Amino acid sequence: MRLTFPHMGLLSIPVETLINGLGHEAVSAPPTNKRTFELGAKYSPEGACLPFKINLGNFIEGLEQGAEGIVMAGGVGPCRFGYYAQIQQQILEDLGYKFKLLLLEPLGGKRQELYHAVQVLLENVPLHRAVAALRLAWQKIRWVDQGNALFRYDLPRSKDQRETQRSYERFLAAMRQETKVLQLGRHYQKLAEWLKKNRLPETGTPRIRVKIIGEIYMVLEPRVNFHLEMLLGEMGVEVVRSMSISQWAEEHLLGFCYPHHRRRTVLLSEPFLASSVGGHGRETIAEMVDAGVNRLDGVIQVLPFTCMPEIVAQSITPAVSATYQLPILTLVIDEHSAEAGMMTRLEAFVDLLRRKKAAASV
Fold this sequence. Notes:
Blueprint: E1 2-4, H1 12-21, E2 25-26, H2 34-43, H3 50-64, E3 69-73, H4 84-94, E4 100-104, H5 111-121, H6 127-154, H7 161-177, H8 181-197, E5 209-214, H9 216-220, H10 228-234, E6 238-240, H11 245-253, H12 260-269, H13 281-293, E7 298-304, H14 308-324, E8 328-333, H15 339-361
Parallel strand pairs: 1-2, 1-3, 3-4, 5-6, 5-7, 7-8
Helix pairs in contact: 1-6, 2-3, 6-7, 6-8, 7-8, 12-13, 13-14
């Protein structure tokens, strides 16, 4: 079966690997672009959040390329993400598209949907082949996230930032094509060698470090957050980010094996937010506290317009900021946001952090 899926950062690399490895054909929608925005905004409810609209645009473009099915994650709790797939399915069917929806609900959701999706994905696939595909996809998630962390560290320390970006793009292309687990670590080592050769010598001057937090889609999808991490790196700012695809999978899909993620979130957020508000609202507060405890220079919260969990977190931001003397910038993004406005706010925020750091060192 030809299957499409939504884009979210580097998610397409392991998802394509898994779908193809299970004997299906991955139909990757074009990278999110202006038309994706337009399609999503045109056919979505006006009050829907931006990730809903972009996902819908991805699905339309994937179906236009001949996809016969859609693979989509589900959710539970107050966040509207748990209703995405059902509403998007109805919209697409009303538009005349014919497809199968494979909904990967979490174990706390409707298990019959999950069982049906797994049954279709594993149909006529030998067990050893399924295990091999899962292993390769999982290892790609881990190594790609490690490569991204290394890139974020090196970009502001590069002699030639364009060469650093090209090295990172070569790494991602190699990871996408790789079919052997044992070769993944070697691609990472090559990236590390490329970046090390292009690294500036340390001067002893502390570098500005900023943590990016917020709703996971907005944090991880660069074509929606205006390549926020790249912009900050080019300004000489080191971007710190705990949220990643592998971290999300460990916490939400394999939580019984990685309970420390949930314990850490609860421990850090409890003084300011004692209960879950859905989405990544509580994680946002936990990461703010972590940035304050570890003396980072600032925090940028990224959220889609109308996102209830992040709005709740935003209301607690002043208390966290005052407690840790931590500058926090909140970026609310929808389909009408523009890069020029984003750049102006980022430049002003980074300038504030530099002046604050300079004053503290006097």
